[in-house]
Write a sequence for this structure.
């Protein structure tokens, strides 16, 4: 067995401790040890954004983050956006505005947008596109995703 | 008080995708996310040679790695090839022919143990002479890849119509061209993955990304040594497919063979690098075209010879010429035709099917060439296309009845909306100007099957419908949902016929054990065929329900209708009774069981292509015209696409949101083909198997897209719809190429229009101009 260390983090609002093999990525731990398979492994090299999560308010590619670095951090995954208050406005906008096709990029895309909207709910079209540059979608051509960002941003501003 | 329900329709509305809520909340479990109890991991050892004899494979050390349960090679698996010509054994025993070739496979408790075992497998090779270009592979004395085909020709197709010599004699102008279209690959966000499970009776369940589950049973079984009836294909949600999963590829039988060897479920998943190297590509093609016309612009002949780099084995790539042929012979009215295609074995990776299948390549050739011909004849691009456009009910040289097409309408609307002629005239005046950024506009048109494609004995799809005591509907369809939205389309059709709401419909699909037959997701067929099957099933159910209602209320069934969960009087919408109450009465009346209806659309009015390549293969045909406006940076050669005007005959809009999404996504994929995607293969080796070196379009690069859908109301299609998914990918690339020419005077014949190629073209043009001036 590889060497393991216990890591304690705040995961989707709950304090969680998990035994992390040294060298494992945050994505591997989320998917394989914590049963949070929403974040996707699509390239494993930080090029596609399908594994995006939010750590201490910052979006990042969880495939590149060592899991041991999760210690003491506040982590939000796609599963954390559906709360007792309902689903997140970004999720709602994705569902209603055709932003989902195969859906494999969707969790990472939504987390990136959640992060962008937290910073600025009234982005211009150009700012939205730049903000999504690191998230690849092979199905939609991005327009419906951009439409969803605008709708979700409006609901946040209202 | 009487309650009245007005007639409403859900066809053409914006309907949310049924799988979107689970996908947007991260709840959807894809094949790639699957875990079964006691599951092992599988991995494949691939060769590092492009052509070699396998002298020896030593697996002893690999077997001894802790956690390893099995190591298999070609020596201990059934000797049966997969693919169209059955020329590709899943594990290679004697010889490797391309870089992706599978030598051995390991099943182990962890992926790390698999990797450790793979590193310990020793393979001894004897290198063989290699060949990478079609032309070289056709030469006398070229290395032979498959002994049973000593000429290296995997497949060949020939078609002649009219009298080509007469066509040449009739021509005032003849234009020749050469177009080489390149390797690109699907880049599904979900990499290739399979999970295999066997039971003690030897029956196989394969959790697969397959797009053709029912035929796959037959295709995969011989390589497993089992009866096709003992193979069950289950299709969990997939992260994209786009044609890539229309054949059996070696990893799938290998996954099952590992499960057989270990008596444990096995999951085999690619790395992204492996996905680039070991997935099928789009078929690269070398076109040589000669085409003529009269002074008045009437086309006289089209002579096209093509070579396809088949790679080491034969998958669907080698059959793309059947579709290419349809475009070469039938896109525009051309009286005299010659066409040939030869798929030539080389030591390159091999091609499969990919959205737009053979027509992406053909349309690049035809539409680039049409612009050259227009220039040669003194016509504008729109004019020449209008002169030669197919009209409704045209019978093509291959015997297709084009039915209710509207190519002229597509051309005229696209030109009008984009102000094409004014801009086209203006922009080409700027060729010799000194501005760094030059603007251009280009147009291209396309034609594709839009009502299925009869390539199997049946081009059909079956549907089973159950209505329960609460008027909730369960639909079991043969159709495969691969993210494209067919479940939602089928549900809409049910809602339209049965007067329930979208929320009341559950679609059960994607399992060959429960679903009725379907050919698979290909050829833009599913809305048309599976939609029609659903509609027929719903209509049958409706007739039975209205009969029961009529009996109860002593009126004629044809005076009744179903609306918003009620039986109503068709004429005035007055409510007769709630639908759920009627269904309960039918259920418990003793005579009728719970409503279960089966129907199908197994016999669309189509015919297979015969050995002379004649046949009306599709029940409908369609056109799309795209206009692209681009800005070329003449300093860097970069091309930015600013706006795309898309006009497409869709028959009828079913789900407007889904249709727009397919169109936008198809354009993104086609823009990648035109501008940025290029799988670089040098001496058989894939040089850029990573996203950082293989550039997919990202959000900032996407143009504004203006979409117009023409509704020709196909008489056969469900609610008038036609298939729509491939045309946007097919037609956009030549529109961009033509726009770059309009901006700069630089014609790039071979996509992609990379900055390097455009910059070189600009430099060469400048040199030519300078020399001409001297």
């Amino acid at each position: 067995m590889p060497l393991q260390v216990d890591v304690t983090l705040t995961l989707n609002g709950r304090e969680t401790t998990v035994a992390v093999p040294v060298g494992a990525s945050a994505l591997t731990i989320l998917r394989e040890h914590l049963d949070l398979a929403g974040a996707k492994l699509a390239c494993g090299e930080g090029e596609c954004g399908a594994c995006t999560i939010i750590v201490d308010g910052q979006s990042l590619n969880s495939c590149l983050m060592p899991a041991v670095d999760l210690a003491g951090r506040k982590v939000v995954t796609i599963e954390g956006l559906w709360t007792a208050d309902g689903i997140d406005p970004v999720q709602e906008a994705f569902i209603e505005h055709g932003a989902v096709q195969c859906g494999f990029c969707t969790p990472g895309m939504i987390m990136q947008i959640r992060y962008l909207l937290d910073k600025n709910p009234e982005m211009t079209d150009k700012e939205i596109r730049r903000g999504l540059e690191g998230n690849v979608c092979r199905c939609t051509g991005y327009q419906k995703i951009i439409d969803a960002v605008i709708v979700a941003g409006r609901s946040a501003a209202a | 008080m009487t309650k009245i329900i007005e007639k409403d329709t859900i066809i053409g509305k914006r309907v949310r995708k049924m799988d979107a809520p689970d996908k947007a909340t991260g709840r959807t479990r894809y094949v790639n996310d699957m875990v079964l109890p006691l599951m092992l991991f599988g991995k494949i050892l691939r060769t590092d040679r492009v052509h070699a004899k396998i002298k020896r494979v030593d697996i002893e050390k690999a077997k001894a790695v802790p956690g390893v349960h099995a190591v298999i090679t070609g020596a201990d698996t059934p000797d049966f090839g997969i693919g169209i010509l059955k020329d590709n054994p899943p594990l290679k025993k004697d010889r490797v022919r391309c870089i992706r070739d599978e030598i051995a496979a390991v099943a182990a408790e962890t992926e790390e143990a698999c990797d450790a075992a793979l590193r310990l497998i020793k393979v001894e090779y004897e290198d063989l002479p290699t060949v990478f270009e079609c032309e070289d592979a056709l030469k006398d004395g070229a290395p032979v890849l498959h002994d049973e085909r000593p000429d290296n020709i995997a497949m060949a197709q020939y078609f002649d119509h009219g009298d080509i010599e007469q066509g040449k004699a009739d021509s005032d102008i003849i234009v020749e061209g050469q177009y080489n279209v390149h390797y690109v690959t699907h880049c599904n966000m979900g990499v290739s993955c399979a999970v295999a499970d066997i039971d003690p009776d030897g029956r196989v369940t394969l959790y697969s990304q397959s797009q053709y589950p029912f035929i796959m049973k037959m295709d995969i079984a011989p390589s497993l040594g089992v009866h096709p009836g003992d193979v069950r294909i289950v299709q969990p949600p997939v992260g994209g497919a786009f044609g890539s999963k229309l054949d059996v590829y070696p990893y799938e039988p290998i996954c099952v063979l590992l499960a057989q060897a270990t008596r444990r479920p096995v999951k085999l998943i690619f790395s992204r690098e492996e996905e680039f190297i070991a997935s099928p590509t789009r078929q690269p093609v070398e076109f040589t075209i000669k085409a003529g016309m009269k002074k008045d612009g009437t086309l006289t002949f089209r002579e096209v010879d093509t070579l396809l780099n088949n790679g080491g084995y034969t998958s669907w790539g080698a059959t793309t010429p059947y579709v290419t042929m349809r475009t070469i012979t039938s896109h525009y009215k051309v009286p005299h035709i010659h066409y040939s295609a030869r798929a030539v074995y080389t030591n390159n990776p091999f091609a499969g099917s990919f959205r737009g299948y053979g027509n992406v390549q053909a349309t690049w050739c035809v539409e680039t060439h049409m612009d050259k011909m227009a220039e040669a004849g003194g016509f504008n691009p729109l004019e020449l296309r209008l002169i030669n456009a197919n009209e409704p009910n045209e019978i093509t040289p291959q015997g297709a009845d084009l039915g209710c097409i509207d190519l002229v309408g597509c051309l005229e609307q696209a030109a009008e909306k984009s102000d094409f002629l004014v801009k086209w005239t203006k922009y080409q005046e700027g060729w010799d100007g000194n501005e760094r950024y030059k603007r251009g506009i280009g147009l291209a048109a396309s034609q594709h099957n839009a009502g299925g494609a009869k390539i199997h004995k049946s081009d059909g799809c079956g549907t089973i419908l159950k209505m329960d005591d609460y008027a909730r509907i369960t639909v079991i369809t043969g159709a495969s949902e691969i993210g494209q939205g067919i479940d939602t389309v089928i549900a809409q059709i049910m809602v339209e016929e049965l007067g329930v709401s979208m929320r009341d419909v559950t679609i059960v699909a994607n399992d060959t054990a429960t679903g009725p037959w379907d050919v698979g997701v290909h050829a833009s067929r599913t809305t048309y065929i599976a939609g029609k099957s659903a509609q027929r099933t719903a209509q049958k159910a409706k007739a039975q329900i209205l009969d029961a209602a009529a009996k109860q209320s002593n009126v004629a069934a044809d005076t009744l209708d179903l609306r918003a969960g009620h039986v109503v009087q068709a004429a005035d919408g007055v409510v007769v009774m709630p639908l759920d109450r009627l269904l309960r009465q039918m259920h418990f009346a003793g005579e009728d069981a719970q409503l279960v209806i089966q129907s199908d659309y197994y016999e669309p009015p189509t015919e297979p292509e015969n050995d002379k390549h004649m046949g009306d293969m599709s029940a409908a045909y369609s056109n799309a015209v795209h206009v692209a406006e681009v800005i070329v940076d003449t300093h860097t050669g970069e091309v930015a696409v600013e706006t795309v005007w898309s006009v497409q005959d869709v028959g009828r809009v079913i789900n407007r949101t889904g249709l727009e999404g397919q169109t936008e996504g198809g354009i993104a994929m086609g823009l990648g083909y035109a501008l940025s995607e290029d799988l670089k293969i040098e001496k058989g080796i894939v040089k850029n198997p990573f996203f950082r070196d293989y550039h997919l379009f990202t959000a900032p690069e996407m143009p504004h897209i203006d979409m117009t859908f023409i509704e020709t109301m196909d008489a056969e299609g469900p609610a008038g719809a036609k298939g729509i998914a491939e045309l946007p990918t097919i037609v956009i690339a030549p529109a961009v190429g033509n726009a770059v020419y309009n901006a700069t005077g630089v014609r790039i014949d071979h996509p992609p229009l990379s900055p390097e190629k455009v910059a070189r073209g600009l430099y060469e043009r400048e040199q030519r101009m300078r020399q001409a001036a001297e």
User: Anything to note?
Assistant: Residues 34-128+189-241+245-278 of chain B form a domain with the Aldehyde Oxidoreductase; domain 3 fold (CATH 3.90.1170.50). Residues 567 and 577 of chain B are 5 Å apart (CA to CA).
